[in-house]
Write a structure and sequence with these properties.
Blueprint lengths: L1 H11 L4 H13 L13 H7 L6 E7 L8 E3 L5 E5 L4 E5 L12 E5 L7 E5 L2 E5 L3 E8 L4 E11 L10 E5 L5 E5 L15 E5 L7 E5 L7 E3 L6 E5 L12 E6 L3 E2 L5 E2 L3 E2 L8 H6 L5 E3 L5 E6 L13 E5 L12 E7 L5 E7 L3 E2 L2 E2 L3 E6 L5 E5 L4 E7 L18 H5 L4 H17 L19 H4 L2 H9 L12 H14 L1
Parallel strand pairs: 13-17
Antiparallel strand pairs: 1-29, 2-3, 3-4, 4-5, 6-7, 7-8, 8-9, 10-11, 11-12, 12-13, 14-15, 15-16, 16-20, 18-19, 21-22, 22-23, 23-24, 25-26, 27-28, 28-29
């Protein structure tokens, strides 16, 4: 970091050291174009926009599923959904009547801390929280947990830009956990960040098996070669088209570049030029996605429900960019390996992005017991079902309504003096945390704040600040500061 500071001081010349430090903070720890709100689920509009390959159809399996992230089917056919920002896991009842929609929706377990990764092993449900790994007995037939929830691994690195953790059990009956970086680009203090870590089922035997993985939010084992393939989100603030996001084939003991190298051994301008050894030893991705389109969930196609050309392919959710001039991603793609081992990327489900309008953000994919693929959309709060050889229509599965708030009514509970004091304190927090660096209305590549009072009240904004949407970092704010910042945002934007 000293070399970076020295370089900045030279080129900025007359800029004060304080300003340089401010720029550095924004560069390394603040990410641009952060999504602040979710959107309505407009089924009729989606019907006219969604595109799929011939023979495929998509329906809405469930709506009103807020912050839908990792999906995992039970042996009985119920679908578990992690809701990290709500500190809970939901269960969607299996489609017993065959109408292509979940029969019920309820909370399975709450009181967690940013739960994201989910998997089953023997008669346990495992949950990866932001700072721990826990497990609880699970009754697949009843769709219920049994007994007490137990945290078997504690003290995991939490907070920062990429606080969600992904967990899966491998064919070797060991538990694999991907832990994202705390920052855009930096040298991590905890070596478990930006890494894949392996455990015994009881949480013992912690072992880092791969490093240099900035934010590998999804991974799966190929049924063809048995290797782990993991998505990874490239760093920000190097322009619209660099670096690529990645698909990496995980080899134990390997380093996949971050923060020293981007793509195929290209030195990072901040940390790579003085780390030639690390750059040279980094492992290149097997496939590069377009820059900033944020590949998250991945699952290989298994079984015979899809046409032959999809056998052995991988389905990947591209969450979509929030830090480039023109948006990119916001779709689901399929990856196909040719005879030479090259990866060919094809659109699988597209149409969530029309011009500058976003109607959905695919975050996770999983194959159901019926062979169909299920997609979690954490923007519209929906789970979609993609099937081959049957007709489906995008119809709302459950009553879905997006609250519309009125700013003055929201703030009416405060007296004039309370409101003024909270506004002033909130403005101080907004400036102190350099929020404008990500929300500058004069920069088309940033996320502009607008109509906040229509989309949020103080409570919903407060909750967002507690568990922000990645890549927005978790800021260490007091409850009073969170409330004040919420008041300031509602009144100002």
């Amino acid at each position: 970091m000293n070399q970076v500071l020295k370089w900045f001081l030279i080129v900025t010349g007359s800029l004060s050291a304080a300003l340089v430090l401010l720029v550095l903070f924004a560069k390394y720890y603040v990410i641009v174009n952060i999504p602040l709100i979710s959107g309505d689920l407009d089924a009729e509009k989606l019907n006219n926009q969604i595109k799929l390959p011939d023979g495929f159809s998509m329906g809405i399996y469930a709506s009103e599923v807020p912050d839908a992230r990792v999906l995992r089917f039970t042996e009985h056919g119920d679908l578990l959904v992690a809701n990290p920002s709500l500190d809970q896991v939901m269960v969607l009842g299996r489609d017993a009547n065959g109408d292509g929609k979940a029969d019920s929706s309820r909370m399975l377990i709450g009181g967690l801390n940013g739960p994201n990764g989910l998997d089953f092993y023997e008669d346990w449900l495992y949950i990866a929280e932001t700072d721990a790994i826990g497990r609880v007995k699970f009754d697949h037939l009843a769709g219920e947990i049994r007994g007490e929830y137990e945290r078997i691994v504690q003290g995991l690195p939490a907070g920062g830009n990429h606080w969600r953790k992904t967990l899966r059990f491998g064919p070797d009956n060991l538990m694999y956990v991907a832990m994202g970086s705390s920052c855009n680009v930096c040298i991590e203090e905890d070596e478990r960040r930006a890494a894949m870590v392996r455990y015994q089922p009881d949480g013992s035997g912690e072992q880092i098996i791969a490093r240099g993985m900035r934010n590998s939010a999804g991974f799966d084992w190929s049924p063809d070669d048995g290797h782990i393939y993991a998505t990874d989100n490239g760093r920000d603030l190097l322009g619209d088209d660099f670096p690529p996001c990645e698909l990496n084939r995980i080899e134990e003991g390997s380093h996949y570049g971050w923060p020293f190298a981007n793509g195929n051994k290209i030195p990072d301008p901040d940390f790579g030029e003085s780390s030639e050894g690390a750059v040279g030893n980094s492992v290149a991705p097997v496939h590069g996605f377009r820059a900033h389109n944020a590949p998250l969930g991945i699952e290989f196609v298994r079984g015979g429900a899809f046409p032959q050309e999809y056998q052995g392919s991988a389905i990947v959710a591209l969450h979509g960019s929030w830090n480039r001039t023109e948006k990119d991603g916001y779709k689901v793609v399929s990856l196909h390996w040719d005879e030479q081992g090259n990866v060919v990327e094809k659109d699988f489900v597209s149409g969530f992005l029309q011009g500058d309008e976003v109607m959905g953000r695919p975050a996770e994919v999983t194959q159901g017991p019926d062979g169909s693929f299920y997609i979690a959309d954490d923007f519209s709060g929906a789970i979609y079902r993609v099937a081959y050889g049957e007709k489906q229509k995008l119809e709302i599965a459950m009553a879905n309504s997006q609250p519309v708030y009125i700013a003055e009514e929201t703030l009416a509970k405060y007296s004039a003096d309370e409101r003024s004091a909270l506004f002033a304190k909130g403005e101080t927090v907004f400036r102190a945390k350099v929020c404008i660096s990500c929300h500058n209305p004069n920069d088309s590549g940033l996320k502009v704040l607008e109509n906040i009072g229509e989309k949020h009240n103080v409570q919903t904004l407060f909750q967002l600040l507690v568990k922000p949407t990645s890549p927005m970092p978790v800021f260490p704010l007091t409850d009073v500061e969170k409330e004040a910042l919420a008041v300031y945002l509602i009144e100002s934007y």
